[in-house]
């Protein structure tokens, strides 16, 4: 499963990308706002650090506007993935970009039928929002499972990109459900390495090594 970092924070991207654990980055307008930086400038900088896919989202809501913005974003760097909302206009724009070979990430997916539509227009990625479904007491992970079955039934090549991931359990469940990618905030990705028994065991080994005068 590929890991994308869900942030527009350059320092956090640099730090996590250097671990070799991250394959790409996703942003959205809220994350860009949080960065306090100019949109094009920040996407350009992310693409100079990360060689994998970097999702940048259009703001327009009509096809013409989405196509114009999407082409601008795609011209920033070869690894930009144009993020489009799951609306009829977004799907139309996705179809055009698919035909032109521009990579797309169809976002704000909350149902299996929406994911089916994104696959039919050749989206590179579909982003089901797990956490936001959990927020309204709907099991977001069921959505990933349903999409996996539907895509496998028909051999759709659209990648399932688990998004709106809030905790390590979401990551594990995405992996079990066969998501192709998951995108999570840096803190969640780092937390995957944590286990109290690892800390306890390491402390005991270090203490015994010291007591035995072991040196390597
Ligand atoms: C990523 O592509 C999404 O925009 C992001 O994961 C949304 O996460 P949130 O629901 O925690 O804002």
Q: Give a short account of the largest sheet.
A: 8 strands, parallel, barrel
What percentage of amino acids are in beta strands? 15-25%
Helical segment count: 11
Strand/helix succession: EHEHHEHEHEHEHHEHEHH
Look at the helices and sheets and give the structural class: alpha/beta
Give the uncertain stretches in residue-range form.
Answer: none
Bound molecules: erythose-4-phosphate
**What would you report as the Rg, rounded to the nearest angstrom?**
19 Å
Global morphology: globular
Oligomer: single chain
Average the pLDDT over all residues and give the rounded result.
Answer: 98
- Major sheet: order of its strands? 1-2-3-4-5-6-7-8
State the separation between the terminal residues, measured CA to CA: 35 Å
Task: Describe the structure in brief.
By secondary structure, this protein is an alpha/beta fold. Helix content is 52%, strand content 17%.
Can you walk me through this structure?
The chain has 216 residues and is an alpha/beta fold. The protein is built from eleven helices and eight strands. Strands 1-2-3-4-5-6-7-8 form an eight-stranded parallel β-barrel, surrounded by seven helices. Helix 5 links the parallel strand 4 (80-85) and strand 5 (104-109). Helix 1 (10-17) packs parallel to helix 3 (39-49) and helix 6 runs parallel beside helix 8 (140-154). The protein is globular, with a radius of gyration of 19 Å. 37% of the residues are buried. Erythose-4-phosphate (E4P) binds at residues 6, 26, 28, 107, 127, 129, 131-132, 163-164, 183.
